[in-house]
Amino acid sequence: MVDRRDVKILSPIKKTDSQLEQLVKKNSKWIYQKKILAKQESSEKLSFVDGAKLPHLGKRYPLKIVKCRGMENFGLKNGRLVAQVTKNTKSRIKKLYSG
Questions:
Q1: 40 and 6 belong to one structural domain
Q2: Are residues 39 and 53 in the same domain?
Q3: How many Å separate Cα 95 from the centre of its chain?
Q4: Which residue among 13, 34, 68, 70 has the highest number of C-beta atoms inside a 10 angstrom radius?
Q5: pTM attached to this predicted model
Q6: Interval 89-97 mean pLDDT
């Protein structure tokens, strides 16, 4: 998984270090391309308003802001990044997006 911060390798426990190294080498070109794309995206100014397209796991998704009364949440649902917030403020949405 490549995001705007780093590369993460998620694998089953039964995979050996050697198998993981081989997998990384096999996909090194893809990883490199995604790292460049993630770096470019991290240098651009993001807008945290309804309908803005935000990068997430190598793709761009439109942001849907939903006002809620309960627990705030942020995640990918039906091809959209959904921010469920008690107050619709850019700083709050940015904090949820950044984790």
A1: yes
A2: no
A3: 13
A4: 34
A5: 0.58
A6: 88
